[in-house]
Amino acid sequence: MRIVFQFDVISPYSALSWKVLMRYKSRWRFTLVPKPVFLGGIMQATGNKPPAMLPPRAKFVGDDLKRNAAFFNTPLLPPPSNFFTEVARSCISCQRLIVAAQQSQRLSESSVEMLIGALMEGMHIDPSKRTADNKLLINEEFLDACISDANISSLVAAEIKAAMDLAEVKDRLKSNTEEAIASGAFGSPTMIVTAPEIMKPLVIFGSDRFEQLAFLTGREWLGPVPGRL
Predict the structure, then answer these.
(1) Do the bridges between strand 2-7 and strand 31-36 make them parallel or antiparallel, or are there none, so unpaired?
(2) Are the CB atoms for 25 and 32 separated by under 8 Å?
(3) Per residue in 153-189, pLDDT tens?
(4) What is the 3-state secondary structure (H, E, C) of 132-195?
(5) CA separation for the pair 137, 11 (Å, rounded)
(6) Quick one: 179 exposed, middle or buried, by C-beta within 10 A (0-12, 13-18, 19+)?
(7) I need a surface site. Which of 20, 159, 185, 227 has the fewest CB within 10 A?
């Protein structure tokens, strides 16, 4: 089985899905292909809107994330207070950092996965990355902290940070986003799954359809936290 994971770390549902993928990677023995995208570009192209733009939906998502935090055993923080004024614009630097890491010759796939996980943690889980008034500042200090959390050396860190502004990195993020839109993505995360058990590629949106994926591909689903009693 092959899972193309189209994601933007700005989405808490991407963080939840990433946790499940990491927990099931060895159990299900699939090939994981992370594809960082720019969620803002996807929303603009598809006409989708952030949940907070519709008050009833915003309330539902707030409650839903609290339930999911317990269900996925992932202590999600509340959305940062500066989400629309700063985070929504500055988060693209996280996506470019991941692309730069993927293009680096010095980092293994597992190291890139650790960086993705660290950025997800920094965005949604780690309270030390927030200010006292719940602001999230995605600046060089934040990126350095996430890189350090991923156990990436200072030498390689300097190289991938320098590469973030290269045209080839920006172009790859753009092409990933265009590819996601063409595949049917309208939000993050979107997973494109291919497997011998299914006739055509399966498009899955969100973090709550892993049970369907298991059913359709004949794999065992033990919940979002395997082994939990």
Answers:
(1) parallel
(2) yes
(3) 999 999 999 999 999 999 999 999 999 999 999 999 9
(4) CCCCECCCHHHHHHHHHHCCCCHHHHHHHHHHCCCHHHHHHHHHHHHHHHHHCCCCCCEEEEEC
(5) 16
(6) middle
(7) 227
